[in-house]
Amino acid sequence: MRRRWLLPFALVATAAGLAHAQGTPVTTVETRPADVRVGIVIELTVNVAPERAEQLSAALADALHRELEVDAIGGADVTRRVPEGGVPEECLASRDCVADLARRLDATELLFLAMVQVGADIQIDASWVSVATGEVISRPRVELLADARAGEIFSAAATRLLPHARKRPLAVVVTPGEPRPAGPDRHMTAASWIAAGAGAAAIAGGVALGLSARSSFQRCNVDDPPSDCDDDERDSIGQKALFADLLVGAGVVGLGAAVFLYVRSDRGEVAREKATDVKATAWSVTPIRGGAFAELRVGF
């Protein structure tokens, strides 16, 4: 089930604030100011009503702003700013006319559109103009079939119309209760700590006992002159060395057990099992000119 509303852009901040308060993941849109401002100018229409042409120009501006990191102006916003009587003929070939339109629209680039309706379909030819250099480049034709949605067609054609513009980052997505991405979530359990502590203590005891046995061995056999050690004392040296080896071995086993328990401690597995029983619910907010497009998705 999907329901859509057009809400003020303040909804983005509200949704993000609620998600943060509930400890839910939030993906935010990068708010880098666009350094490209495009003015969409209707140069020619054939069999297309002025009102329809103006609607298509506004839809194209919204699609460019939604898909690319540009600030686009079109539709009635452009109509109000162009000279009385509309865009002069052959304006595209006149540097003075282009500069005047760019000043009126506060644009760094212009898209001149020629709209021709053939039957129920509309063909749109666009010419891109750089205000700074005067460079003019024809862009691929955009065709609106009778049953096509202009917004979807323009969104798909955005990168072809302005190939030099950066793609806009993903929209804000807030998903309450969404589990973290699948993957192991290991941690030190109580058993891991006990095994690690016992292993470390055994190794420390074995090292200490081994040093004591070595000191006694050097005193009885290596020192010059060696000490007069009886058989019992020599036997105790061997026992100390044996116990030291056993303790070190036990310590290594304990540390290995701690590592094994750590590797097996995956809390994410439990979370993923629970997530299979959770219904999917998500907000998504897409910025557009003058506001934002909000969508609520509820899974049943």
List the SSEs and their pairings:
Blueprint: E1 2-7, H1 10-21, E2 26-27, E3 37-46, H2 50-67, E4 71-73, H3 76-79, H4 95-105, E5 109-118, E6 121-130, E7 136-138, E8 142-144, H5 150-161, E9 172-174, H6 190-222, H7 231-264, H8 267-275, E10 281-288, E11 291-298
Helix pairs in contact: 2-5, 6-7
Low-pLDDT segments, ≥5 res: 1-33
Strand content: 15-25%
What summary fits the major beta sheet?
6 strands, mixed
What CATH calls the topology of the largest domain is: Rossmann fold
CATH class of the largest domain: Alpha Beta
Rounded mean pLDDT is 77
Distance between the termini: 8 Å
Structural class: alpha+beta
The secondary-structure element order is: EHEEHEHHEEEEHEHHHEE
Question: Which key features would you list for this structure?
Answer:
300 residues, alpha+beta, Rossmann fold, 2 domains, six-stranded mixed β-sheet, five-stranded antiparallel β-sheet, 8 helices, 11 strands, 44% helix, rod-shaped, disordered N terminus
Outline:
The chain is of the alpha+beta class and 300 residues long. The chain has helices at 10-21, 50-67, 76-79, 95-105, 150-161, 190-222, 231-264, 267-275, and strands at residues 2-7, 26-27, 37-46, 71-73, 109-118, 121-130, 136-138, 142-144, 172-174, 281-288, 291-298.
Structure description:
By secondary structure, this protein is an alpha+beta fold. It is 44% helix and 22% strand. The protein has 8 helices and 11 strands. Strands 3, 4, 5, 6, 7 and 8 form a 6-stranded mixed beta sheet that branches. Strands 1-11-10-9-2 form a 5-stranded antiparallel beta sheet, with helices on both faces. The longest helix has 34 residues, at 231-264.
